[in-house]
Amino acid sequence: MGMSKSWDCFGYPVSIFFIVVNEFCERFSYYGMRALLILYFSRFLGWDDNLSTAIYHTFVALCYLTPILGALIADSWLGKFKTIVSLSIVYTIGQAVTAVSSITDLTDFNHDGTPDNLSVHVALSMIGLGLIALGTGGIKPCVSAFGGDQFEEGQEKQRNRFFSIFYLAINAGSLLSTIITPILRVQQCGIHSEQACYPLAFGVPAALMAVSLIVFVVGSGMYKKFQPQGNVMAKVVKCIGFALKNRFRHRSKAFPKREHWLDWAREKYDERLISQIKMVTRVMFLYIPLPMFWALFDQQGSRWTLQATTMSGKFGLIEIQPDQMQTVNAILIVIMVPIMDAVVYPLIAKCGFNFTSLKKMTVGMFLASMAFVVAAIVQVEIDKTLPVFPKQNEVQVKVLNIGNGNMTVSFPGMEVIQPQMTQTNTFRTFGVDELTSINISSPGSPVTPVTYNFEQGHRHTLLVWAPNYYRVVKDGLNQKPEKGENGIRFINSFDESFNITMDKKVYVNVTSHNASEYQFFSSGIKRFEIHSTQPIPQICVNDFQSSRLEFGSAFTYVIRRQDTGCPELHVFEDISPNTVNMALQIPQYFLLTCGEVVFSITGLEFSYSQAPSNMKSVLQAGWLLTVAVGNIIVLIIAGAGQISEQWAEYILFAALLLVVCIIFAIMARFYTYINPAEIEAQFDNEDEKKNLEKMNIYSTMAPVSQTQM
């Protein structure tokens, strides 16, 4: 033990730096791989969105359930150090297997760039993910507890600071990997055919995991390692079971009450174990309300990203894509952790307020709840700017005149005169039963009725171009385009069909007087050209530019022939671009991140400081279990049913967390902080006394027997 004292640096054991670097690499590796998973499932394995999302969430939940396993192995069998090393090896193998599963050339025997036998890839990637879940989950509770073990008694301040640095390493790792991994994926590679480089993007995390393992093993000589103390968990379960059984047997009034229900285990188990279990159960009881915090916290990846898709990502000169908003959380953490530690907490202490761990956690829950109130306010602002889409029992219609003369269109209760090359300024909304008849007429020609079976809950465009020529097109967009992209469709007013190539996407065979489907593009200016079956004269311009696309808009581009035979372009807006700026999301991210800093780091540190020495990992795993349950709550709520108004759902979540926060505050009032080391030291003293007494008995007995001889 004396050795660990000498390895000192700024009052911290040097071994800590190895542990922090190890955690940084491990988190980089994990988040880097996780950022790719959804894309890998949908693009490489070709799964649909629902299956991809379900498997993805299952994987994430598994990664938070396996810590229980890791903690059991560490606390009762291998010890923390050996557990971390052996499970890191499993983890590295898992990363490698996943990387191999994404190599097309593995089964691509005909070299056409697509795997010939997908099931091999699916099987390999599932084995890989299984090993990763076991590895990442298994080492999670051990690494933080092992770090805590490196400190001596009386180094509480440094130890708390360590948990902050540890958390910072987690977020620095995830931040860098969410930026770097997508860049790797875009690279092209392949032996026989070039394509998106998944093996490289999965391979880099695998290599980093190997580095992380090596770094950890190199520090081996400096660590304080505690021996595991037999199968703790089995003892705990048996002891609790016995206490409950015993309590039930003595339930009549005749038997005197005992102070704590666990005291009923006294007949069979020693005081030390009972007091250790009391410590754990008291903390576990406090954890019951905590998953609600994680249920809100985990929505920044799903709900808040979807909210960003209905906003505009213009920040001065730079443009931000909706899914990049998540990095705000990691950036803010890297800024906020040092500020909290160096500025906010000392200030609060100076004011004479005792800001205990549980008070910090209560404040964290309150801040997260407020973040959702802010998200709801932002949502209301967004809703004001969103177009009105048809409800389930409604139909929307707009008229677009692509002919050469004025047309009159009469709907039930109104008449529209539409000049050439114009559209009605908005979609008209009709109840399903209201839309009895639509007629088209123009000066000097008979009335033409429109016969079409309008689909409920959808938008339709009525194309007209001559007195008795019309076509109804179902738009197919009854919400804002996904991912903040822009929808563009082409309408052909030539007499023959054409193809259009726009920014590498092709609109194939758009027939005469008909509309193509929408295709989607990110922000910026896009170029396109027309390939018609009747050649376009050489003198014509055939390199067109779109208007500057922003976020979440949709346009119809009508292509018509001028008298010269050259094509010309008319642009009509279907859905206006998003106007609310993504910067409005920063306050809610800020509140949630502040909440996370005071809640999450404190939770790690509290779980460590209140746990008996032989159950440090078990309590860390209990803490991680609250995260897993939070994930499951989200899955249940998201699956259970949609609240039609998104802002109402945010308010519901905020209210739920607020209620939980109040309950937690009340529970925390009744919690008394303990120092497990002191309590254990008392037991050690008692044991020593007992041993000494025994020794005394023997020493007094010995001489007697000699004299008798």
Automatic annotation (TrEMBL):
Alphabetically list the UniProt keywords.
Answer: Cell membrane, Glycoprotein, Membrane, Peptide transport, Protein transport, Symport, Transmembrane, Transmembrane helix, Transport
Q: Which reaction does it catalyse?
A: glycyl-L-glutamate(out) + 2 H(+)(out) = glycyl-L-glutamate(in) + 2 H(+)(in); glycyl-L-glutamine(out) + H(+)(out) = glycyl-L-glutamine(in) + H(+)(in); L-lysyl-glycine(out) + H(+)(out) = L-lysyl-glycine(in) + H(+)(in); carnosine(out) + H(+)(out) = carnosine(in) + H(+)(in)
Q: Name one GO molecular function term.
A: oligopeptide transmembrane transporter activity
Query: Subcellular location, in the record's words?
Result: Apical cell membrane; Membrane
What is known about its subunit structure? Interacts (via extracellular domain region) with trypsin.
Functionally, this protein is described as follows:
Electrogenic proton-coupled amino-acid transporter that transports oligopeptides of 2 to 4 amino acids with a preference for dipeptides. Transports neutral and monovalently charged peptides with a proton to peptide stoichiometry of 1:1 or 2:1. Primarily responsible for the absorption of dietary di- and tripeptides from the small intestinal lumen. Mediates transepithelial transport of muramyl and N-formylated bacterial dipeptides contributing to recognition of pathogenic bacteria by the mucosal immune system.
Q: In its UniProt entry, what is this protein called?
A: Solute carrier family 15 member 1
What organism, scientifically named, is this protein from? Zalophus californianus
Q: Which gene encodes it?
A: SLC15A1
